[in-house]
Amino acid sequence: MSEQNDRLRQQLVGGLLRQLHLDVMSQRFNPRLVLALFNLVNGGLSIALIAIVALITQQSFIFPSLGATAFLLFHLPLAEAASPRNVLSGHVIGALCGWAALWVCGLHDAPAAFLTGVEWPRVVAAGLSLGFTSALMILFRVAHPPAGATSLIVSLGLMHELQQLPVLISAVALLVAQAFIINRVAGIPYPLWRSRKQQD
């Protein structure tokens, strides 16, 4: 599996360098260094663009679990967990489970746990949100580990308002669109919706 991932990473870097007519870099420098540079530029640029959207709109387009999603999208773009289906569905499930846990525990209007500290209702909300997120991702076959962080972001009260959830999902969709473009330019057959493994 690790050998296959290494080949995919080399294909990713090599494809991008060929598209940009920079293939000499992959011959002159260590492929791991080139891959690290690829992730530095693309992961950083993608998150910066989303942060710019957040700055312009003054909406919560940027949140911590996007960083982990960006890493998957640019480091392992052909992994099942990085497919658009898994990324979008996973974050939707995580956000909805986090929001539902807030309501079940009566915390929908409560300030964030980082402001007030963690009390028993918040413990229950966090446990419920992550437990249900994990179970539903497995049941629907849309595993995306960063979505677990999204469920906690919501259940801990960082994004507790229902109107924030469409913004959250829009940010994820924007990141997926960027990954699609960048990976396709690099010559990687990043899927439109499902990974090849999911289609088999």
Secondary structure blueprint with pairings:
Elements: H1 2-19, H2 23-28, H3 31-57, H4 65-75, H5 84-104, H6 113-116, H7 120-139, H8 146-155, H9 164-185, H10 196-199
Organism: Alcanivorax jadensis T9
Protein name: HPP transmembrane region domain-containing protein
Pfam family, one: TM_HPP
Notes on the structure:
- The chain crosses the membrane at residues 33-55, 61-79, 86-104, 124-144, 165-186.
- Keywords: Membrane, Transmembrane, Transmembrane helix.
- This is HPP transmembrane region domain-containing protein.
- There is one protein chain.
- The chain has helices at 2-19, 23-28, 31-57, 65-75, 84-104, 113-116, 120-139, 146-155, 164-185, 196-199.
- The protein is mainly α.
- The protein has one domain (2-199).
- Helix 3 packs antiparallel against helix 4, helix 5 (84-104) packs antiparallel against helix 9 (164-185) and helix 7 packs antiparallel against helix 8 (146-155).
- The radius of gyration is 18 Å and the shape is elongated.
